User: What shape does this take?
Amino acid sequence: MCGIVGVTGKENAVDILLNGLGRLEYRGYDSAGIYVNDQNGKEYLVKEKGRIADLKKEITPDVHGTTGIGHTRWATHGVPSKENAHPHVSADGRYYLVHNGVIGNFAQLKKEYLEDVTFVSDTDTEVIVQLIAKFARKGLSTKEAFKKTLTLIDDSSSYSFLLVDHEEPDTLYVAKNKSPLLIGVGDGFNVVCSDAIAMLDQTHDFVELVDGEIVVVKPESVTIENMEGNQINRKPFHVDTDASEAEKGAYPYYMLKEIDEQPGVMRNLIEHYIAEDGSIKIDEELLKRLNQAQRLYIVAAGTSYHAGLVGKELFERLTNIPTEVHVASEFAYNPPLLAEHPFFIFLTQSGETADSRQVLSQVNEWGYPSLTITNVANSTLSREATYTLLLYAGPEIAVASTKAYTGQIALEAILAKAMGKLKNIDKAENFNVAKELTFVANGMQALVDGKSEIKEIAEDVLATTRNAFYIGRSIDYDIAQEAALKLKEVSYVQTEGFASGELKHGTIALIEKDTPVIAIITDEKTAKHTRSNTQEVLARGARVIYIASRQLAVAGDQIILPEVHPLLTPLLAIIPCQLLAYYTSLQRGYDVDKPRNLAKSVTVE
Ligand code: AGP
Assistant: This one.
């Protein structure tokens, strides 16, 4: 899941490419490169291992152009290196290619067609540019050579490609399958990007591409064709987001900015989905179809999956509809026995996660209804689902998801309330979601304002540890799993989110002197059981930190949460956990926003 950009028809192509790559760096940041030409025979290829900042150091003042392509990488084939960085060049020096995705049958294509070609990288992508060049040398036009190559790529593959033929220096050849890609439409110029955010300072009008299309982009034109050669006309959509929303402002890291934005995300959701009179502004047809379901299936990955775990509690309590939560990559190839009338809910911040999209394609084939809850309008999982509900959380740039997690849970609460109310379920009737989310927003504000206390705990308890545990029961166990993921992904501490009652059945063997154990206690019916489980680890030398709701707190508890509705406690309890992860990473000198080995939007399976 890399980030790719392209531009044609602009004097400052180099700056546009570098700015765009800078905004896409959350998608992969182990190596990068650009290719530009000035349409008068001058062309430049610059690649470097590491960040865009490292690439910039390699770009000398003479490097300029009006057309170019760029790439920031998350390695799938071949280690992060200058040789494996994109753009890749054909052996005859004619073609330059950047790619986001994975070519499943690259080894077989290399063996079958390219045994006479000398490769300079270990990547799957180089096979594609060498193939295009081979077919062009056989007399095919660039477009036909590109098309022929695409027909040889197997169905398991995902790709978005940007190709430049230096014999047509003002032209970008574009194609996609499964990986996201947009064309940004300008006046006298056009751009291409994996995510609109990369080009918001150039245009706000974007054309979405559909799998299997090939596009020829010139400064004055964008021509979309299907593989049969039929031209397709498609209107651009307008992106309201302002480029500045994607800026860090005075914050040292996006993660801290996005943690602080969560009270605003709650208020935004209330504003978008709840009318003055308390009625909920969600399409009644969607609510009716959801309520007709015998069973709800929530499908997601990573943090979104954890938001689904809390969603299960909300849907079952407020709608009485049995709800299952599934890890997308498992469901994709090992689906459970389904109810006769299922309804699928996809939770995805980016709207582009390949594992979730794989399931949605299956669900569409089965002909079942689906809803995507996402933070990105016009994203693939939004376009391909029956219904979409947006989070309105603003761009989430830090790889570690924070405000999207709380946004997803809050929107699940609003949706469950609306469904339950339509079914005249008392619990839903009595659940004043606008009032309760307002209390949550105020509680969040108090917690982020008190972040310095969390900083001290992180530096005292987590600064040097190799491992740690978050424990809890029922809804607190759901929170513990997300809290553990946050600490793992930004501070590299081996952390488990564990059902506290399960510890004594084996895992407690890992507890030794000073092992950090963070107990989450917001659920009244299990609070005393979790506390007795903490006694068991204390007896074996653990250092226990208690995160407890005010009404369940006891003397000595380190982190007290303001009181909110029992179904919404995850929205508060996760805040100190996000901050503990942030300060532990900061204290260890890591890049909090771009943790090693990760990427924000995982567009390969
Ligand atoms: C969370 O912090 C991670 N970035 C990751 O687990 C993420 O939640 C997962 O990849 C799912 O992404 P999505 O919500 O965009 O589908």
Remarks:
- Residues 301-304, 348-350, 353, 356, 399-401, 489, 600-602 surround 2-deoxy-2-amino glucitol-6-phosphate (CB under 6 Å).
- The chain has 19 helices and 25 strands.
